[in-house]
């Protein structure tokens, strides 16, 4: 039995972790951390969990939790995990951080884009970037895993094989991303109100979104080239789902079959990546509630560009599902344990 | 291994059956019947099933299917199941009919409300009304189970204990029901278009909806009284979920504790019925994707009425989930096998 | 030129007032009161007003405003208007209060349902209940008009003719109401977040909603009978729109034609009330953005009840539109001046 | 009094034309053409028009209509207008075609992208492309105006000043467009059903959408350069609204102030174009129901690209509103007559 603790259990990503882990017979959640709801019953906050979870919310004392849990998930605001991390915690337990604190290797880049000082830079090198399909072997031995961001998971995996194989010009890459509202979190802010988001669409964080350097770093590793991209997120009136549309110049003439072949080379054996047949483009609804990444593409000979499209459920593959996938790897379990979630339609 | 066939596999209820059954290791779907999509790959119709279901759609030849399947689910328009049913089929296989054909015991009532002639009235008496929490023992021995309607499941279970115990006046009962759009099915009709339903709300079938006699019959059995109700369905812009608000005159003074006690008497041991604590009212989102029925109530001493509220996912407990619950009972399995679905939020 | 001031101009009802009044050539808004946004440009809060409104937000100093404005609209929380009202204000300007402060004639009832002490009960008698179609003549001479609530406007007008003519039993009346989310206001609260409301439905304020006594009082006047009702509001995932479904026992046998005749007797000449033809039931989308009330009905001979349905846009006829209709009456203008708004579809 | 006829009056664009024209005192709609609903009352199809429009639907006999109307709007499928156009019609009446038939000057390009033969190529040269802000003077004298597409209107106007001034590299332009569902029309097709679009997002027509050559042609005229672009439309779960996000390489170093200056040079005096202040990005909700185009931009010095964003209501500025703007120009009226529509929020 794996004992798991969650800090930030009442955010949307935390709630999704609970949903996924509550199905497991080999995992017990021993700590529902939520500073805002201490001593309140978890099922009073998320009533979908009525009669499923009996526990009350606890504080975010990670030191104490480290003594009780085999793995800690931190689904907390940027800066929290770095500010509390220390060797003692890591010597007692594994940590999967769903925040951005340990995703970026260059601490200067982190501090510039996030506007905060990193609280424990000494652990950045050790931390493994938890994009399972790319870093699988490293994750297996990690004590501290940096769970990738939602936009980044989708953006990177959609372009990864073509970047890796040198097919696309890494300075031409433009990522136009669209997300449902759960990505904005559960904070009670006016822009997140139903009437402000419903029947509305907008870009935000233009040329300034914090997921940009994370994507650039990872695709830079893949391609071996300096990667500077445009990344533009948009807010769309739906609960779940991220769709990315990526544009890149082709370095040479390729056919659809060759592109499909490259995707298959990397993803054919992947449980959670489904490369669509030609002419089929991913829709967020086809992955909703599941850990899948659906990928499609189209070559445009008129412009010599390729358009790549990827879709995920931002709370599953973009957060809690991938965190559990990382946990499975870190504990030597089947990678899809507890993640055989079939997409819900409609 | 139970071999299951589905006729009407590409409707929304049929699709949900596939989603639920595809998780099972003890069930194999041997027939994806869909007259509209014969020979097309099922996963081309429902791309959420890409790489999960490989089969192609077949026709609706129930005779042939009966020879191959241990159980047949008919998720078909009214009249189909009755028109094809015969002793030979029932001698070879069990049938769970998700249409209304065998729900109503009085064939005249059926023919009046549905406006069609019943094709095999000789099986009506044998058919068991598959409301598991009420007819559990009968279902276990059924060959032919009539899976209840979505509105009716929610309407009946919400009032059942109070009807049974003679607490409410059965001629005062008014059921105001609200449903998401998946209840209207997947037919390509103008009123079902996104732009017609989105940002809109309406009543329909006022004093004429076909689920009315089904509710009256079952609550009549429960109460032992003639039950004549008002039932008004409304269409609400969301995919899934039914909420019923039921009003009834109290026959005598009762306290909230007494009412809670009555609900608990009937439902405390029920896996799929969650009676809310006082002051908590069900929300459809708290049951979405699951087989739960959530029930709450409020006594209004000013009017001497009780307001009962119930919520279900219309495609799960209101259709496919309950059908599988019936299958489990009919095959002597644990009633919640394959149905431990945790509600998805948000 | 009528000089108008709005206190509470950045709430949804206040914003709608601005939208409607900004079209007028005979009205000038001289005061955009918004305590939360003082000194900020109004168009920075509501960017739909960019290049339409240039003014900045001011505080809520109604005394000063009274010296500048011919009419003041208070779109403020309960208690505010009563707490600041005085004879001097009313001697200088007309007031249309969109809050509940002056709607209920019995101050005890007000204080019980709203849980606050009334700040200026001496003006309650003078205040005119601003339901234009019912109190038109009184409104013309009012200094202080209590603009009706959104649910109440729709609930009362839907039943009014039948109550007035003694057709329905006023103790049997049950009103099941459904509203879009803008009725909950623009406060940044977790339950109003997009992800909490979207794809969800719930009842709230069951047997306790504050619009109940307002409806009872007005329908009591109409019927001359003590009126005690059940009123249950529901929240539905859409921005605008209220639909009420009302159930009442018929006191005598009547035909559809007779009922239609009664509605026509009261509403035929009304600009803003559209009584539907038989068999047609109102939909909120058909009135969206307009000042219309659409009404339909169905007699159910099985239960001897009539089901009445009414639809409005809660921000127009349920708030700002009706407030402007009241202003028109109070200033001797054409009642529909600036209100010839055609419903927007889709 | 201008007598107007509409062919295709029951589509969403046709319905919006009726909504806008019904407010006019100087325009009378003399013909509600709708092949699907001949002899049915228009208000029975669009009940928002109950008691506003009394007429019945007529067929699409444009010859007869030409004798009765001063202007004909064709809101019809591609090919219809070209197939019926002749000199006699144009000698009797003005025509504003909302379809694509006369938008593209090169008939070969039209026939290739639309896959149909053009029925009256002899009128292509005469036809004026009705993008008012660009072709105002030509439109004033037009007999036949080709009303621009919804995506194209937004896409072109967003980039036009920078293309015209040679600021951006016209071969680097990538347009990622997102639209609400009303753009898909009112046809009863499965992919347009509520449950298929709601809570879903997808790209479609990738590298193949018919609006591509229209954008290329117009921006080619503006820039004087060959313009070959990527245009990717996406479907988003909302009724109305188009948002385009456009990426282009800057030809030289420019400041935000310079870019703003260029936009102002072209659009400062335009009634319907609102260029946002720096750091403000358009949202579709801020233009909903109005004829506005809202435009914002951001220079990204890291990639030396500019990101331009534009928002319109696809049924107003993207269809019916612009058609009326064209009519106003063609009849020598104030360009904003009947179009002072304030955006509706929320």
Descriptive keywords:
homotetramer, alpha/beta, Rossmann fold, 2 domains, globular
Describe this structure as you would to a colleague.
Chain A has 12 helices and 13 strands. Chain A is globular and about 60 Å long. Chain A folds into 2 domains: 2-126, 3-Layer(aba) Sandwich (Rossmann fold), CATH 3.40.50; 151-314, Dihydrodipicolinate Reductase, domain 2, CATH 3.30.360.10. The first copy, chain A, is 31% helix and 19% strand. In chain A, the strands form 2 sheets. A 7-stranded mixed sheet of chain A has the order 8-9-7-10-13-12-11. A 6-stranded parallel sheet of chain A has the order 2-1-3-4-6-5, sandwiched between helices. Chain A is an alpha/beta fold and 346 residues long. The C-D interface holds C 12, 15, 19, 22-23, 46-52, 182, 199, 239-240, 274, 276, 280, 283, 285-290, 294, 340, 342-346 and D 12, 15, 19, 22-23, 46-52, 182, 199, 239-240, 274, 276, 280, 283, 285-290, 294, 340, 342-346.
The topology string of helices and strands of chain A comes to: EHEHHEHHEHEHEHEHEHEEHEEEH
Share of helix among residues of chain A?
25-40%
Q: Which shape of chain A, going by the Cα principal axes?
A: globular
Q: What is the CATH first-level class name of the largest domain in chain A? A: Alpha Beta
- The overall pLDDT of chain A, averaged over residues, is 97
Helices and strands, with pairings:
4 copies of one chain form a homotetramer.
Chain A lengths: L1 E6 L4 H10 L5 E7 L8 H4 L16 H7 L2 E4 L5 H5 L2 H6 L1 E4 L9 H8 L13 E2 L2 H9 L3 E3 L3 H15 L9 E6 L14 H4 L4 E2 L7 H13 L6 E6 L6 E8 L6 H12 L5 E3 L17 E8 L4 E8 L3 H15 L16
Parallel strand pairs in A: 1-2, 1-3, 3-4, 4-6, 5-6, 7-9, 11-12
Antiparallel strand pairs in A: 7-10, 8-9, 10-13, 12-13
């Amino acid at each position: 039995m794996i004992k798991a603790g969650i800090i930030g259990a009442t955010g949307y990503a935390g709630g999704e972790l609970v949903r996924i882990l509550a199905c497991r017979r080999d995992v017990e959640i021993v700590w529902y951390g939520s500073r805002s709801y201490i001593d309140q019953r978890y099922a009073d906050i998320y009533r979908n969990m009525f009669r499923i979870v009996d526990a009350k919310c606890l504080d975010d004392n990670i030191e104490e939790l480290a003594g009780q849990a085999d793995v800690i998930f931190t689904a907390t605001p940027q800066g929290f995990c770095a500010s509390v991390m220390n060797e003692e915690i890591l010597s007692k337990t594994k940590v999967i951080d769903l925040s951005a604190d340990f995703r970026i290797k260059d601490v200067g880049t982190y501090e510039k884009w996030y506007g905060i000082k990193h609280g424990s830079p000494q652990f950045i090198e050790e931390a493994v970037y938890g994009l399972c399909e790319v870093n699988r072997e490293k994750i297996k031995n990690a004590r501290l895993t940096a769970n990738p961001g939602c936009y980044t998971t989708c953006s990177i995996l959609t372009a990864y094989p073509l970047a890796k194989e040198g097919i696309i010009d890494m300075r031409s890459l433009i990522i136009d991303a669209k997300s449902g509202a759960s990505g904005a979190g559960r904070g009670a802010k006016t822009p997140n109100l139903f009437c402000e988001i419903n029947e509305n669409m907008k870009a935000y964080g233009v040329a300034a979104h914090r997921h940009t350097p994370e994507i650039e770093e990872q695709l830079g590793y893949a391609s071996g080239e300096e990667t500077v991209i445009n990344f533009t997120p948009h807010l769309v009136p739906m609960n779940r789902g991220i769709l990315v549309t990526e544009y890149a110049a082709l370095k040479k003439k390729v056919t659809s079959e060759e592109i499909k072949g490259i995707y298959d080379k990397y993803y054919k054996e992947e449980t959670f990546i489904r490369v669509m047949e030609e002419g089929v483009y991913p829709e967020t609804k086809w992955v909703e509630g599941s850990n899948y990444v659906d990928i499609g593409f189209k070559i445009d000979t008129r412009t010599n560009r390729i358009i790549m499209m990827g879709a995920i459920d931002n709370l599953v593959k973009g957060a809690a599902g991938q965190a559990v996938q990382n946990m499975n790897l870190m504990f030597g379990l089947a990678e899809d344990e507890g993640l055989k979630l079939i997409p819900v339609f409609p």
